[in-house]
Amino acid sequence: MKGDKEIRWPRWLAAVLLLAIGAVLVLGGVKLLMLSGSPYYLLAGLACLGSGILLWRGDARGLSVYAVMLLVTVVWSFWEVGTQFWQLLPRLAGPTVIGGFLLLLPLRRSASEPGKPARWGLGAVTLIAALALIGTFLTVPVFDVSSIRAIALKAMNPRSAEWTDYGANLAGNRHSPAAEITPANVPQLEQAWSFETGDTKAKRPEIKSISFMATPLMVDDKVVFCSPTGKVFALDADTGKQVWLRDPHTNIGNAQMLNCRGVSYHADSAAIGLCAKRILSMTVDGRLLASDLATGAPCPDFGKGGTINLDEGLGDVDPFRSYTSSPPVIVGGVAVLGSYVRDNYTKDDPSGVVRAYDVKSGRLLWAWDSGRPDDAPMPGPGESWTRGSVNAWSVFSADPALGLVYLPTGNATPDHVGTHRSPMLERYASSIVALDVKTGRIRWHFQTVHHDTWDYDIRQAPAEMNRIQNI
C-alpha cells in the first residue's frame, strides 16, 4: 500500500494535465467544427480525456489511448503542413514531450505486467514523433549571412554610392556599395561637418513636440532631406554647405506629432532642364510638393505650382488629424503614398486611403481604401473615402519587375477599441498588402494580427530579401 501511495502523485498529475488539455481541445474543437473547421482537435481532446480518466484509475490502457492519439497527430500534421519544420513544431512538440513524460509514469504493481505492451507502444510512437521533428529540423536551410551584403550590392548600382530611396533602393535592403569605411577604420573616423535646420524648440517656441527622423538621400553629390516642419534642404555632400532650401511655410498648428521621415527622388532620362530630376516631399498641413533637385525651385508642371492638396476627397478634415509623414515610393512614373492618422481619439478620423499620383503632373491615378470593396470605383462628387479606415503610415517598398508596391498597415482607430469595427475594417489591418502599382488592385496580403486591439501596426517597410538572395 505504501508503494501504491508513493506512485499516485505523478500518475494523478499526468491525469489532471491530460484532462485539462482534453477539456480545452474539446471546447475549442466543437467551436471549430461549428465554423466548418478541422475535426482533429475535437477527436484529440476526447482522446486526451479518455487517457486521463484511465490513468487516474491506474489503468495502463491510458498509455495506449494516448499513443494512438499521438500517432494520428503525427500523420495529421504531415498531411496538413508537409515537411515544414517550423509548422510541424507547434503541432508535434507538445504532444511528443507529454508522451515522453507518460513513459516515465509509474503504475500500480498489479497493472505493471499488462502495462508493458502499452509502454512499448507509446515509446515507439513517441520516438517516431521525435525523429520526425529532428529529421525535418535538419532540412531547414542554413543561410550564410556573411554573404548577404555582397549579394545585396548586386541589386544596386555598382558604379556609385548614391542613396536614391529611403531604404537605399526600392527593395528596401539598406545596403550601400561604399567601401572606404570598414570595421578596421571606423575608430579613426572624425566628424567632417554638421548642419542645423533651425527647427528646434529653442528657436521655435510654438512647437510642442518635435522629432527629427529623416533619412537623407544622396544624389548628384547632394544630401537631400526634410525637417519636421516640412522644409527641404539640399547640402553639398563634401562640405555640408547649404545648396538650397525650400520652405513651404507649414502651418504646424496643434499637430500631435511633428516629423518628416524623408523625401523621394525621381529622374526622367528623357527630360532636360527644370525638374528633369525632382524631389517629392510632404508637409503636416496636408500638401505634397515637387522641387527641382538642382535648385529647389517648385516644379510648375506638378499640381498647382508644384503643390498638391492631400486633403481633397477626405471629407471633413480636422487639421493635423491626418497627414503624410513618410516619403512616397516612386515606381516608374507613379508615386504611392499613405498617411498618418492621429491615434486613439475617435472612430471618425479621416480615411487611411493610400493614393498614387503621376510623378510629373501630380494627377491622381488610383486610390486604395481598405474600408471599401476591392472593386469599388473612385468616390463620386460629394462622396469621400471611408472614415476611420486602416491607414499605412510607415515607409513602403516596391518591386518594379513584378509591378508591386508593398504596404505595412496599421489598424482602424481608435487603436485599442475594436467593438465598432466591421469585417471590412478588420480584413487588412496590421498586414502586409501588395498592390498592383498600375491599378491599385490587391495582388495578395498577409495579416499578422487578427482583430488587433493592441496597436501592433506593421512599422517597417517589407524588405525583398528573397529576391535579393536569388540574384
Description of the molecule:
The chain is an alpha+beta fold and 471 residues long. It has helices spanning 2-34, 40-56, 61-81, 85-103, 112-138, 148-153, 423-426, 465-469; strands at 217-219, 222-226, 232-236, 242-246, 264-267, 277-283, 287-292, 307-309, 322-323, 329-331, 334-337, 340-341, 354-358, 364-368, 397-399, 404-408, 431-436, 442-447. Strands 1-2-3-4 form a four-stranded antiparallel β-sheet, with no helix packed on it. Strands 5-6-7-8 form a four-stranded antiparallel β-sheet, with no helix packed on it.
Descriptive tags:
four-stranded antiparallel beta sheet; disordered C terminus; elongated; 471 residues; alpha+beta; disordered N terminus; 8 helices
Question: Could you give a short description of this structure?
Answer:
The protein is 28% helix and 17% strand. The chain has 471 residues and is α+β, with helices and mostly antiparallel strands. The longest helix has 33 residues, at 2-34.
Overall pLDDT, averaged?
A: 85
How many whole angstroms does the radius of gyration measure? Answer: 30 Å
**Beta strands, count:** 18
The helix tally amounts to 8
- What are the segments in which pLDDT stays under 50 over at least 5 consecutive residues? 1-7, 109-113, 151-158, 465-471
Tell me the fraction of residues in β-strands, as a range. Answer: 15-25%
Q: End-to-end span in angstroms?
A: 72 Å
Numbering strands along the chain, what is their spatial order in the largest sheet? 1-2-3-4
Helix content: 25-40%
